[in-house]
Amino acid sequence: MATDTPMQLGMIGLGRMGANLVRRLMRDGHRCVVYDLDESAVRELEGEGAVAARSLGDLVAKLERPRAAWLMLPAAVVQPTLDQLAELLDPDDAVIDGGNSYYRDDITRAAQLAPRRIHYLDCGTSGGVWGLDRGYCLMIGGEREPVARLDPIFRTIAPGTGSAEPTPSRQADGTAPQGYLHCGPSGAGHFVKMVHNGVEYGMMASIAEGLSIIEHADAGLRKRTADAETTPLREPEAYQYEIDVGEVAEVWRRGSVVGSWLVDLTADALARSPHLEDFAGHVSDSGEGRWTVRAAIDEGVPTPVIATALTDRFESRGLGEFGDRVLSAMRSEFGGHAEKRSRP
Amino acid sequence: MATDTPMQLGMIGLGRMGANLVRRLMRDGHRCVVYDLDESAVRELEGEGAVAARSLGDLVAKLERPRAAWLMLPAAVVQPTLDQLAELLDPDDAVIDGGNSYYRDDITRAAQLAPRRIHYLDCGTSGGVWGLDRGYCLMIGGEREPVARLDPIFRTIAPGTGSAEPTPSRQADGTAPQGYLHCGPSGAGHFVKMVHNGVEYGMMASIAEGLSIIEHADAGLRKRTADAETTPLREPEAYQYEIDVGEVAEVWRRGSVVGSWLVDLTADALARSPHLEDFAGHVSDSGEGRWTVRAAIDEGVPTPVIATALTDRFESRGLGEFGDRVLSAMRSEFGGHAEKRSRP
Amino acid sequence: MATDTPMQLGMIGLGRMGANLVRRLMRDGHRCVVYDLDESAVRELEGEGAVAARSLGDLVAKLERPRAAWLMLPAAVVQPTLDQLAELLDPDDAVIDGGNSYYRDDITRAAQLAPRRIHYLDCGTSGGVWGLDRGYCLMIGGEREPVARLDPIFRTIAPGTGSAEPTPSRQADGTAPQGYLHCGPSGAGHFVKMVHNGVEYGMMASIAEGLSIIEHADAGLRKRTADAETTPLREPEAYQYEIDVGEVAEVWRRGSVVGSWLVDLTADALARSPHLEDFAGHVSDSGEGRWTVRAAIDEGVPTPVIATALTDRFESRGLGEFGDRVLSAMRSEFGGHAEKRSRP
Amino acid sequence: MATDTPMQLGMIGLGRMGANLVRRLMRDGHRCVVYDLDESAVRELEGEGAVAARSLGDLVAKLERPRAAWLMLPAAVVQPTLDQLAELLDPDDAVIDGGNSYYRDDITRAAQLAPRRIHYLDCGTSGGVWGLDRGYCLMIGGEREPVARLDPIFRTIAPGTGSAEPTPSRQADGTAPQGYLHCGPSGAGHFVKMVHNGVEYGMMASIAEGLSIIEHADAGLRKRTADAETTPLREPEAYQYEIDVGEVAEVWRRGSVVGSWLVDLTADALARSPHLEDFAGHVSDSGEGRWTVRAAIDEGVPTPVIATALTDRFESRGLGEFGDRVLSAMRSEFGGHAEKRSRP
């Protein structure tokens, strides 16, 4: 099932994502030149058939023109690597940024490389640690010609049509049904990926909230402290359920309206850790959610659900503490409610 | 691929859901007695092999003991039908409410039927108009024995294990991997279904908000009226994208973290109506979302995303109008902002 | 400045609110019979001129007919006290519940007392620990006649017209400008008080959030850990302010649009505890916020701000922890994000 | 009651705010030179005692050195005016921007003027159309020396200590108790004003939501269409109140916890327009709310209430329509819910 049109690609950054992209490409008959600061990562892929590069210059030297170099790097390292690379590349070469860069940086970078006629493509890449077998959803921005030239690469990385039923009302054209899409000019790929992650925040929060309601469906069975500060449960008889949250996640995977990969993953985590004791619940946010809300505000589009899902992550990390203390202070002032500091 | 253990079931209510349940059951070798106020619906299923009943009494007469009668009725009709049915049934018969009843009503109903030893099961049924082929996700509440007795029925209606990959970390036990689950005592099934719909509200809202941001990514290309009441877009150059929302939904279906049945359906709708001109956007809510938020509040569980998704539906139907006018009034008072009535 | 029409009132419950109501009434020339389980509270007010009662029966015996008895009790004690009292009172007597009862209980209680022709008034009482001098805002529900009869009592308790400038566009009629209002039939008083508290939640949250943004305006001065899980601040130069939050609260008290009693109280708390180190930030909610959101949902009125303010209080008490762990689990599943349990 | 230290100020921009600032200053004994593109505005204030300027150059010529020029202009006009003014001013002159500029622009502007040793102060000014008599709350950013030099001006414009009771726990120092505050270096004034407006959004939304719940407390009296798409009200007997919202706003003005200038203004609007029929409810947002949420996100501070209040304003102007149509489309897909376009 190898590709009809084998190509050569340079991969810079061999973390989990970068290494698996290389593997998926090589499986399908593409040739890869690989580079990472960590030599052992380079050697491992060399052992699997990739051509090892000892430096950025070496990588560039080993690529045929017009070159294609894919960056799969932490956001903070992209710009310096790109600066260095720009000195080494020739006109008509292409760089693909496959990480989670801010789309506004893409616009700037593409403009900086344009005078040298180096093509810069931004490629939002979704799929996580499962992409090697499952394929990666690709959201691409940049000029039309280099995107078309690299089509065999994108096609191999993407999941392919077989990974989901065809959309009934849709005519079978374009690349979207294969799991990759040229979304528009520079930045469009990361713009769509950014919003994708915003949607992800909201969906994750919905699932988490729902499962939490089910986990606490036994509220009527628990003793509550009866004091002036705590509302008693009016109808404890309506909250007497001890429901297995993991079983619920599992049953929702089939036939239900909320069926989704996120529910699949949740069911898997709950199968291992039935009350999720293994997790701290300090939920990071890595930029895209913030940028999504900012874009929505700039556009004047109401996105209260995504905005709330974002701020909830801040809450989960304790960042709302000062605000909470303001509330305690006010309650103490007007009602004499004693909420003196109990945290050590 | 017929069932090993054919059973007989009475179906009361032959709307789209009820009729398709009967078809799915008969396909698998079960026998069905069917009743509806609309005689043509009865006759249609009779033509497909079901036994027609002319009345509730007739249906009860045609069922073998211990009987199993499934109600698939609008919420408002469940109680009167049940009252009538209770007079006709015998001890050890079972009634399954497959509609969207409030779980608190289930608790009451089961208690009312208990003295006659009639079993009442509540069965949340998800799958919509696609369930005939895709199967229905079933969330069941009630006593253990009648749930076990009716297992062949639930197994046929549910999607089956083949409808999704196995959960890697899970041992292959229980019925959840087949798409049906006995969640707990009376009401537990509709409780889980209620929360399911709450999760659905949040997921739908997340997707809708995200696609809306993408649809408006051309904000920098549009002329904005420049007046004191409108904030100018500070960086119009960052909003110059004309992105095809339907293509985005399609590409998200494969390999992405937001992959879900709801995205599948959205892609389908957008394939037919690229800017959704066919839809009014007055989004109904049918009870479960409201009940979900109420349960969360009773339990003291924070569910800001689901709550916001719910209130947004109220907004979409214009129910926030008075509040908006209060805001206009205040702004007029303190700032002299003229926002006089422009609606006819 | 004593009242023209001195009356007699029985006060049951001599906590801070009840005791201060008695003092405010006696200052204005009314006579009070007082009762509490805590004898020292009774004796203290006896020393200030009240008539002491040793029991509910004694209190009833010492009141002239038609009697007026005001309950100022924790929510949980209202019903049993009322049951006992109902046995002792005579037709045409009136009971006023001045606490924070759920308005639906008022409807039930009034109906239960109606056959004995005992009048039950629900009276939402706002003003907290400051009401003795400042007066209390009263929101009253119940029949017209007893409300009218007790007008001198309400008038004394309320702040009076002098406590705020007249509303320019308003004609000087009714009692609202004096700070008390007959809102409607049974339950209407506590309904309005319930919503008042819901509004209070939202206003408090707004102020707390705003001050928190100002407290953190030095974000660009702080070192942030640079790892893949933490978004770096893109423009640290825009967050270099070390602003004194207490001074801000103080300046907002005068002439600003956000001027309010809550800002007054916040300024006072910050004057004593400049970073609110004295407060834990575990914010209780005492029922009215929950009931407000439930009422909004029943009515189909969008109240996302009040709902969010409510669920934030749950968050402040750690009730969102399970949901947060679901998020951590999902992130771990799809991205290999390590968020293992760090809490002890 | 004239100021002890009369000063001279140039006012550029004689809209409602600018003109009233001039009047308030002149009342207190300060001298003003005034300029506006609209000559009639200049002439009107000349008639009241101000010195008229025919151009920016004329204004600068008529001011004594070191000059103080206050800009009270629409945001879009500030930069060009400032550019022109910078050419005319001399070292040690000061410009005060009293409008609603984005604080990041202040930082830039101050830096641009620094080489010429022209001082740039940003001064957030709250008080709306009522400030002439009530005074304006001033939040000031910039260098210490020019702020100190202009103290008599700020003191006159601010409301003064008499406008609110002293904060009990506070020592009587600083200027905040008079209603003006030097918040910090350039931008700090508009930063605090920006957040002030964010708080204002949240408070306004809370009040609006609460009054809307009260307005709809008669939900149980209204006929609802009974169809599958509409949830019937379960307990109509709990929503039988016809409460006068204007009276409620009035009573909340005195003694209640929600007492605030915004409630005062709402009561006034309701006194004129009892159901607010005069207002369209298309609520503008003028930048500060958006910037506030952006600052919160940058800082990582959770502000779900302010964010929701902002997005609700977008909703009120119909900007959520595309998202709503996505929801309709999904519901149509999975449930066959007919929600075809009904808007003309």
Structure description:
The structure is a homotetramer of 344-residue chains. By secondary structure, chain A is an alpha/beta fold. Chain A folds into two domains: 168 residues, NAD(P)-binding Rossmann-like Domain (Rossmann fold, 3-Layer(aba) Sandwich), CATH 3.40.50.720; 106 residues, Orthogonal Bundle (N-(1-d-carboxylethyl)-l-norvaline Dehydrogenase, domain 2), CATH 1.10.1040. The first copy, chain A, has 14 helices and eight strands. In chain A, strands 3-2-1-4-5-6-7-8 form an eight-stranded mixed beta sheet, sandwiched between helices. In chain A, helix 2 links the parallel strand 2 and strand 3. The first copy, chain A, starts with 7 loop residues before the first strand and ends in a 9-residue tail after the last helix. The C terminus of chain A is likely disordered. At the A-B interface, helix 5, strand 7, strand 8, helix 9 and helix 10 of A face helix 5, strand 7, strand 8, helix 9 and helix 10 of B.
Summarize the structure.
Chain A is an alpha/beta fold and about 350 residues long. In chain A, about 45% of the residues lie in helices and about 10% in strands. The longest helix of chain A is centred in the middle third of the chain and has 28 residues, at about 190-215.
CATH class of the largest domain in chain A equals Alpha Beta
Most extensive interface, residues per chain?
A-B, 108 and 108 residues
What is the beta-strand fraction of chain A? 5-15%
Oligomer description: homotetramer
Order of helices and strands of chain A: EHEHEHEHEHEHEHHEHHHHHH
Share of helix of chain A, binned: 40-55%
The CATH topology of the largest domain in chain A corresponds to Rossmann fold
What is the tally of beta strands of chain A?
Answer: 8
Shape of chain A: elongated
Count of helical segments of chain A?
14
